[in-house]
Amino acid sequence: MERQEFVGRPPRIDTIIFDFDGTLMDTNDAVMSSWQYAARELLGHEFPGETLTATLGEPIMCTVDYLFPGYDPNLVVKTYRRFHHEHFEEMIHLFPGVREMLEELRERGYKLGVVTNRLRRTTDIGLRQFDIEKFFGAVVTIGEAPKDKPAPEHIWFALDKLDSFAEMAALVGDSQNDIIGGHNAGLISIRVAWAVATDDGYGDEAANPDYVIDTPSGLVGLMDRLNS
């Protein structure tokens, strides 16, 4: 997939692409509990909490390689997802202020999308459970674009669905994977300060966000400033 080039001077940012886990939705308990279940089933013990926290936001196969070296990755993922799918709905919730932020952005005319390395099934469950799917003109999950985040194709695929351009878009996420993906795709990258995902990891300059917001309402104010 090739990036669409904007011709002329971009008048304003009109599109915002969100990550799902750790940005819109607090899925940390569901993710970490699922890894602990897999650890008990396959290793006979649990991981220290800080070990799991360090993996939040990275692609699932990276976590598998790190936590279960030498194990069949398909078996690990199957075991992880067995618990995850059974308990996902009861263990997730929206971060405070997210719904109000989405309502305000929609009222102001922004085009909104979601790009996530999560499966379609659980992504849709979360969006529908909290009635926020209506805010998004594009939702792109893992495997639906030629390459997944942090590859730019994942984000460009969503921009194409929204009829938007990278020069007129921002990426909002909680992990270095998101920030790198946003920069790879040519977007302004914004990190949320309510993230549990750690700042350690890639050691890549591209992982440094252009902006950090402390609260969901802070994104509305930041857009006002960037478009003034």
Q: How does this model look, in words?
A:
The protein starts with 14 loop residues before the first strand and ends with a helix. It has two domains: 146 residues, HAD superfamily/HAD-like (Rossmann fold, 3-Layer(aba) Sandwich), CATH 3.40.50.1000; 64 residues, Orthogonal Bundle (DNA polymerase, domain 1). It has a six-stranded parallel sheet with strand order 5-4-1-6-7-8, with helices on both faces. The chain has a two-stranded antiparallel ribbon with strand order 2-3. The longest helix is centred in the N-terminal third of the chain and has 15 residues. The model has no long low-confidence stretch (mean pLDDT 91). Helix 1 crosses helix 4. By secondary structure, it is an alpha/beta fold. The protein contains nine helices and eight strands.
Count of extended strands: 8
Mean model confidence by pLDDT: 91
C-alpha-based Rg, rounded? 17 Å
By CATH reckoning, the class of the largest domain would read Alpha Beta
Order of helices and strands: EEHHHHEHEHEHEHEEH
Largest sheet: 6 strands, parallel
Sequence stretches where pLDDT stays below 50 over 5 or more residues: none
Category by helix and strand content: alpha/beta
Number of domains: 2
Which CATH architecture of the largest domain?
A: 3-Layer(aba) Sandwich
> What is the count of helical runs?
9
User: Helix coverage percent of residues?
Assistant: 40-55%
Beta-strand residue fraction:
5-15%
Enumerate the strands of the largest sheet in spatial order, edge to edge or round the barrel. Answer: 5-4-1-6-7-8
